[in-house]
């Protein structure tokens, strides 16, 4: 019996898996320390090829009884994850190469986590979503502790591990209740079940499932692990966690809400509303008080996560796909901004040997190129036109006004107030970069900036400027994602 | 809206029950146990040996063997159902299983090349 398997449909996953194996073999049998990194980069780019052929083909492919679906949505996000993974590799080459780190293992784990992400954009049932989510998180537990001799890195890893396991347990409990009620793990069937009259237990099931996701995307009040983990982990890993891994959680959350729980709006909307409002407010208020740039970006990413949750929380009252599009567009733009910001932090830390914001004083005079790009990323995160961040905020507010209910408008007002607070601390860093005198005794060493790091920063700056001036580019991607193939 | 509150009541009941259960367990312990503080009770492991500096009963290096055992264990879990259906799965199943075992064996090769199998 030869079961018919559409290998083209998951060719990106196959290419990436072969790459992982090749990186491992290269690490074991050669002494060339650069080879694993090269294979990894090549493999990630290679995985983009089948994504393109599938996009040209344009057909919706459903595999494994509807558990794995390749449609425009999954292709857009697979492409996003692969590009984000490639940029993370660019950030890592020199950071990992120069330190006293294991190299081959780093790339194997990073790519394994990436594999989980591209699977999650196609996963359409509870079990495959859960397995993909664990494939994302388990390698990152190890990556967070990569600086073995640094107690902060160990602390980061342990905290992330304990919270990750706890959140998985809570989520699984919720999913088991969903399965018990709907008698199926496939989201389409859960959608059918939720359309009918649901017992009160269904609210408990949805609540527990969403709480598990809230841990994964570090939404307040389930965020407390994030700042410590982000600070202790190696900075390229932090960039990866805050962008790719977080986006993985959001993609799973979007899929599960849109295709599964959607008809039972009462059960998921209030939870997401509270998570969104709390994440924005607490994330921004805590970011105001930070003196360490990585911790500040950690809280800022919690707040940005709140902004991403806003359209999701009002999606039930938005006609058409505007809310879902807003989430996808926000994720794409957030990815570019945050990867860029962390690239700039790595570049700046190479010069100042510190992550303290005070050490960045006068950086604009000594290293203008880095400071210009750093300012672009920070202003974009704050949402200032003509940088891409404004468009992300714009689509978010548009979804809120499309919904046009009282609760949605209240959430919109909270988001607006928070945008102003956020502007305050982002511009505070920019002010330090340009208007403060360099502190006495701060030696600004100027080693050559690695090619990968400069390329990553340049690329992200270009994306932010292009999308900021010509937002139709990402808007079109958002539309394509929800077209019927 | 009443339906809405009725649904959320169940969430509140769940949280209440969880709080009650932990409160009852810890509270009962607090009421029943005698309170005799000694310095030994405050060290991390109250097992009679010092957590730092003393010697443990098992050698930490055994964890490598535990990990490798898990590898073969997982292999067996997947091989048994495949073996039962060997005939119906045919050549396709054989190739699939070969790929699976090769990837898994890579784990053993990794351990061997990194020298963790040597008892040094």
Description:
The complex is a heterodimer of chains A (485) and B (120). Chain A is mainly alpha-helical and 485 residues long. Chain A has a domain at 264-485. Helix content of chain A is 76%, strand content 1%. Chain A contains 19 helices and two strands. Chain A has helices at 11-29, 35-57, 72-98, 104-120, 126-144, 151-182, 187-195, 200-216, 225-232, 235-261, 265-288, 293-314, 322-352, 363-366, 368-382, 389-403, 406-435, 451-469, 472-481; strands at residues 61-63, 68-70. In chain A, strand 1 and strand 2 form a beta hairpin. In chain A, helix 1 runs antiparallel to helix 2. The model of chain A has no long low-confidence stretch (mean pLDDT 88). The mean pLDDT of chain B is 81. The N and C termini of chain B lie far apart (69 Å). Chain B has a domain at 58-120: NADH:ubiquinone/plastoquinone oxidoreductase, chain 3 (Methane Monooxygenase Hydroxylase, Chain G, domain 1, Up-down Bundle). In chain B, helix 2 runs antiparallel to helix 3. Chain B has 120 residues and is mainly α. Chain B contains three helices and no strands. The interface between A and B is medium-sized, with 18 and 19 residues.
What's a concise summary of this model?
The complex is a heterodimer of chains A (485) and B (120). Chain A is built from 19 helices and 2 strands.
Fraction of helical residues of chain A: over 70%
Count of individual beta strands of chain A = 2
Order of adjacent strands in the largest pleated sheet of chain A: 1-2
Low-confidence stretches of chain B: none
Number of helices of chain A: 19
What kind of sheet is the major sheet of chain B?
none
Which descriptors apply to this entry?
heterodimer; A: 485 residues; mainly alpha; two-stranded antiparallel ribbon; 1% strand; B: 120 residues; Methane Monooxygenase Hydroxylase, Chain G, domain 1; 68% helix
